[in-house]
Amino acid sequence: MSGDRVLIAGASLAGLRTAQALRRTGFSGSITMVGKELHAPYDRPPLSKEVLTKDVSASQVILCSTDDLRGQGIDLITGVEITDVDLSDRTVTCSDGNSRGFTELVAATGARPHQPFADAPRTGVFTLRTLQDALSLRSALAKAHNVVIIGAGFIGLEIASAARSLGGHVTVLEAAPAPLARSLPTAVARAVTSLATRSGVDVRCDAKVIGFTRQVDELRGVCLADGTVLAADVAVVGVGVQPCVGWLEAAGAPVDRMGLLCDATGRALEHQHLWGVGDACAWLGADGIARRHEHWTTIGDQAKVVAQNLTHRSRRQLTSAPYAWSDQFGHKIHIIGEANDADEVRILSREPTTLTAMFARQGHLTGACIVDQAPLALKLRRWIASSTPVCDIPPWQHSAA
Ligand SMILES: Cc1cc2nc3c(=O)[nH]c(=O)nc-3n(C[C@H](O)[C@H](O)[C@H](O)COP(=O)(O)OP(=O)(O)OC[C@H]3O[C@@H](n4cnc5c(N)ncnc54)[C@H](O)[C@@H]3O)c2cc1C
Questions:
Q1: Ligand 1 center to residue 229 CA distance, Å?
Q2: Is the pLDDT of residue 399 over 90?
Q3: What separation in angstroms does the CA of 92 have from each of 144, 149, 317?
Q4: Mind listing the pLDDT tens digit for each residue in 293-302?
Q5: What residues have CB less than 8 Å from 394, skipping those under 6 apart?
Q6: 78 alpha carbon to ligand 1 midpoint, in Å?
Q7: Other Cβ atoms closer than 10 A to 43
Q8: pLDDT digit string (tens) for 232-278?
Q9: Which atom of ligand 1 is nearest to the CA of 246?
């Protein structure tokens, strides 16, 4: 085992958590993380929250310094992209001209924002993924009067919250008939989104953006298919992400539009020495369906499973329920488990500041969405992970069907 060399492609949350978990599980071989960005691994959740409204510096979002990593026996190479991999020779080719060998490879290259507007003005239109994106958006929001967010997902609504707190007039445009459509049933999504509308954000669904107006190359407005033109100094495109797996595709790795396909142990399908953690990959669930969870906590859970399996050559599976939080308009939203394949939805409280909604399939709890109820979140995670029958769940028993 001490001769093992784990190479981690990507040096952000997924890469870092895997490296740290490997050391915690007693892995004694070498660990090298290779990342394209110049920073040590940093945290992304603050980028759509406090970084947009406060004077937060880069050092405040760094998760672990290069020195701390070195102290844990983890080598970090920054500013280097992995361009190719040979899975039989077990080597990667890097943008610095070097090839690096491995015995096990972990793909943790994350995702990049989807940008469907190739012809967007150069000034005034943003996406948000990196620290630099957040710092550029922060300085634009500080001066903006009219902010348009394209896409009513969680990150879009968090940016709307930040922009509104800075005093801007904020509009959120969603092409689908309902907001948060990828994450929640419509009635629950509408209750969550009313946190935004109550705070003065104009949320419009069925609003298809077809382009922009500009002066020279500076944004002036956002054009909708119905002929409306909304004045805008800043527009943020938040319409989902694409996994960064191009470097794996040519090598014959199992990759589709969801990313690297992995089994429930984190190993890439039909590949002995390739593993996936984080936003770059989709793991098979117990139902055989591959899902990509772009959730901070879930990534830590995946990393622990992969580290355990690598260190002990075991086949442990991920058993925890997916979990994410979102901070917006002064409230904390928790989303646990799966909502979209539910055959029953119960909304215990529709009041957005105490929302409690639970989802079930064939009589077993599969998911939940709650607002400002952290203690209930812990219980829900346990109940959902163990697929508890709804008849055993106290809040469900007390709810109207
Ligand atoms: C703005 C924002 C806010 C969020 N807020 C929340 C939240 O409130 N709650 C929550 O649960 N989750 C939240 N998330 C989700 C969570 O932070 C992400 O799921 C997580 O950061 C993904 O980590 P990752 O390491 O898989 O991918 P990434 O963080 O994308 O990291 C991948 C890294 O790999 C690098 N890379 C890509 N290709 C290559 C290559 N070929 N070679 C070398 N390096 C490469 C990239 O440059 C990047 O540094 C948020 C995400 C964002 C973007």
A1: 33
A2: no
A3: 44, 38, 27
A4: 999 999 999 9
A5: none
A6: 15
A7: 16
A8: 999 999 999 999 999 999 899 999 999 999 999 999 999 999 999 99
A9: 41
